[in-house]
Amino acid sequence: MTSTRRPLISGNWKMHLNHFEAISLLQKLSYALTDADHAAVDVCVHPPFTDLRSVQTVLDIDDIPIALGAQHCHDEDSGAFTGEVSPAMLAKLQVRYVIVGHSERRALFGETDAGVNSKVHAVLRHGMTPILAVGETLEQREAGATTDVVLGQLSAGMGGLKREQAAGLVVAYEPVWAIGTGRVASPGDAQEVCAEIRRQVGESFGSAAAESVRIQYGGSVKPVNAADLMAEPDIDGALVGGASLDADDFARIVQYRLAS
Ligand code: 13P
Fold this sequence. Notes:
Layout: E1 8-12, H1 19-32, H2 35-40, E2 42-46, H3 49-61, E3 67-70, H4 87-92, E4 97-100, H5 103-109, H6 113-125, E5 129-134, H7 138-142, H8 146-157, H9 163-168, E6 170-173, H10 187-205, H11 207-212, E7 214-218, H12 223-230, E8 237-240, H13 247-254
Parallel strand pairs: 1-2, 1-8, 2-3, 3-4, 4-5, 5-6, 6-7, 7-8
The structure holds 1,3-dihydroxyacetonephosphate.
Residues 12, 102, 174, 179-180, 218-221, 239-243 line the site of 1,3-dihydroxyacetonephosphate.
């Protein structure tokens, strides 16, 4: 059966590009993408916080059908949390997707499964869509613990969700060893884990949620490997780091369906 899930290709710009550079990349990207691309695929960019307002303004004024994303947020709506940004502030900027629990946040900034779960709820509370990131380290993969680790992060991150919230979620499977290394997971290996993720969503939230939850693969996605990854039945999109900083490369990933 062909999936009815709309592919979602997301660019995580991480801590790159000031707001001038961000606008320039966005404009190049919008020229490179066609109406046919937008009809086939949802596209989202996740600039750093300092760029969000500028990017949102350009998207709005030029009527560009690219969604705005954020890389992270706090779980409270406001308060004495120096340096943090609230989900309410992001929603006001028309942010649609927020990455929650990226492995860099887990490893470098101490994000826990419990914290990730409360951020998932906070993002949903403000009408935005969480992109819940999960993935194993190389040591965990070599120890045969991939499924346990990924499904553990998944069930903790999705704890307390209603079925319809689970159905609307995006999960990003990003093996840590593939991030920024040029070492992409094979389509078969990525598919295996994504199928496990979908199976568990079905077990916990029912078959309708499993059928509609979108699962992205992330980790060294490039124009040359995007089509093979996207051909897998349980891979519905990509969360792209390095290659999303180049408008032509990112556009070619969005246009994976044209590769032969
Ligand atoms: P790379 O595409 O640079 O490997 O980064 C993946 C990633 O972490 C996206 O969130």
